[in-house]
Amino acid sequence: MNGLYALKPWYADRLSGFRATLVRREVSPDTLTAAGVASAAGAAAALAWLPTGLSALPVAVLLAARLAFANLDGALARDTGRTTRRGAVLNELGDRAADLLVLTGFLALAPLWLVAAAGLAAALPSWVSLAGAAAGAPRRNGGPVGKTERCLLVVVAAASGWAVPVLAVIAVGSLLTAAVRLTWLWRELA
């Protein structure tokens, strides 16, 4: 059950021309990680400060950029031979920061406890995947409510104003995603 993550190879192929330009210009993968975090912060600001409906387009564009940068930073590091353990840590920290920053945009729209619950739940699938990788299992991504699905749900909230239901879906769906990954991981490590 990979969800929208199954589209990653197709998406990476669409970005290949841009990636080649980044290689030629010797852009640092760390710069792309930072750009992904900045895009997430911009999406959060648009969600919080722009009226419902009007926020949908900037939120969608900024979250598409966030996903593109998340895809490109590691690919660029591999393409240029600049993969490092430090870069891998920075990539993971950037991804988690971006995930949490996006959800802070809901603080203007929903109760703090629900935003916090969604934020904690949204971090769980990655924690499970990282724990599995640390134990020697292949990294597991995707799931019913992975990173891409969460971004899509935030756009739905920006377009509709359904902040509370969307946060509830993110929280429950992220818990389900973590459970699916943990079940797979448990079998893999048996």
What would you note in describing this structure?
The longest helix is centred in the last third of the chain and has 26 residues, at about 165-190. This protein has helices at about 10-15, 15-25, 30-50, 55-80, 85-105, 110-135, 145-160, 165-190. With about 190 residues, the chain is mainly α. Helix 3 (about 30-50) runs antiparallel to helix 4 (about 55-80) and helix 3 (about 30-50) packs parallel to helix 5 (about 85-105).
Shape: globular
* Helix amount: over 70%
Largest sheet, strands/sense/barrel: none
Strand content: under 5%
Rg: 16 Å
Series of H and E elements: HHHHHHHH
The stretches of 5 or more residues where confidence is low (pLDDT under 50) are none
> How many H/I helices?
8
> pLDDT average, as an integer?
93
Short précis:
By secondary structure, the protein is an all-alpha fold. It contains eight helices and no strands.
